[in-house]
Amino acid sequence: MKIAVVYNRESRNVINLFGMSNKETIGLETIKRITDALKKGGHSVIAFEGDKDLVDRLERFMPRVLKGERPGMVFNLSYGIQGQARYTHVPSILEMVGIPYVASGPLAHSLALDKVVTKMILRQHDLPTPDFAVLDTPDAPPPELGYPLIIKPKNEAVSFGLKVVHNEQELRETAGVIFEEYRQPVLVEQYIEGREVNVGLLGNNPPEAFPPVELVFANDGPPVYTYEDKTGTSGRTVSHKCPASIGEELREKAQELARNAFRCLGCYDCARVDMRLDKDGNLYILEVNSLPSLGERGSYLVGAAHVGLDYPALVNRLVEVASARYFGTPEPPKLDGQPRTAQRRCSRSSRNDATSWNEDSRNGPKFPATPTIRSASRKRCDAPTECSATLG
What CATH architecture does domain 111-127+193-307+382-390 belong to? Predict the structure, then answer.
């Protein structure tokens, strides 16, 4: 299959730079790892920016659908360039021009990126999430919540602006920085003393849940995964333990909560649900990441590795579950080794030896069914996994 890996880094190729710019970037090494994995799966691959020239690039690369044929696909890594609900921009363009793609659609991305709307939907579905309030202006009255509190921008990801505050002065100072730097309302959330647990999801109807991954904080400071931790500037060590040492009953509960959150936001193909576990064994959903990180430090990869999916296998399985959703191809075998359906295999997907690496560069419409792509080999790992990343 022809697959275009579409991403956003520091693109300025727009008509005007206007509004809030995207602060998230994806590493070139991660993009290359993904393209290499897809080539290993037998695909013809190209990678380029999701900017104003996206449609022209796709039109040159992608096959047009004729009777009985299947179109290519986009492996979507795009965070958007600027403006509101930026995760939705590339998926919306792809839907308009009729190109299937991996991961959620515009609606799910917009809901998940808005942390307040996410929490409201979780509450409507009786899913546990910490109590919260929203500061719409810098002079808004303080919330009627007990300290400590978590402060974060309403519409950002990767823990931008996140901080634990212990009194009103710290609240005002932190909120002021968010209003000035991010120009958006501030989410104020009850801090849950306890442990941080992430659950990765893969597939659809329902998605399969990876074992919960616990983030273990070895040094001083609150056990909260901050932007400084993620960028290696916090000076402390964070490790991932999979499966989390929380007991089988809580593991199953965390997985079920993650699947329910995935469903109520209308996600597709993949997501990561972040939670807190308090001392009394209560789980609280913090947020849903509709584009889980495929970078080497991500807990999504740790969970995938525990069920036997190495990097190439995970990347190609994402294409398989998206293909099943769009084209009606057989679902890949379940991760526990029990086949979901009989699977047809191609000895080789349409491979083009001239595949290129260009550094600069839902239930959607049903297309004619064709044999599913070849899956990379999978080995199941039954031992707990510990993965440490020294940050800073």
Answer: 2-Layer Sandwich (3.30)
Q: Which single residue is written with the structure tokens 């044929």?
A: 69
CA angle 264, 299, 190 (to 5 degrees): 60
Name residue 151's beta-bridge partners: 163, 188
Q: What angle do CA 171, 175, 176 make, to 5 degrees?
A: 115
Based on the number of CB atoms within 10 Å of its own CB, is 302 exposed (0-12), middle (13-18) or buried (19 or more)?
Answer: buried
Residue-wise DSSP of 218-270: -SSS-S---HHHHTT-S--EEEEEES-SS-HHHHHHHHHHHHHHHHHHT--SE
The first and second tokens of residue 172, run together, are 């005002």
State pTM to two decimals.
Answer: 0.82
| pLDDT-derived band at 11, boundaries 50, 70, 90 | confident
d(CA 139, CA 288): 29
Cα–Cα distance measured from residue 111 to residue 372, given in angstroms and rounded to the nearest whole number: 31
- Of how many residues is the chain composed? 392
Cβ atoms 385, 241 nearer than 8 A: yes
CB atoms within 10 A of CB 217: 18
Q: For residue range 73-124, what is the model confidence (pLDDT) as tens digits?
A: 999 999 988 778 889 999 999 999 999 999 999 999 999 999 999 999 999 9
- H/E element, 288: strand 283-289
Cβ within 8 Å of residue 204, ≥6 positions away: 268, 269, 321, 324, 325
Residue 198: alpha-carbon gap to chain centroid: 12
CA–CA gap between residue 285 and residue 262 (Å, rounded): 11
Tokens 């013809």 -> residue: 44
**Where do you find CATH 3.30.1490.20 in the chain?**
132-190
Buried b (16+ CB within 10 A) or exposed e, 153-168: bbbbbbbbbbbbbeee
Domain with CATH 3.30.470.20 in the chain: 111-127+193-307+382-390
Q: Which CATH number describes the domain made up of 132-190? A: 3.30.1490.20
Phi-psi group of 208: left, alpha or beta (phi > 0 → left; psi -120 to 50 → alpha; rest → beta):
beta
**Per residue in 242-273, is it b (16+ CB within 10 Å) or e — as a string?**
bbbebeeebbebbbebbbbbbebbbbbbbbbb
Phi-psi label, residue 313: left if phi above 0, alpha if psi -120 to 50, beta otherwise:
alpha
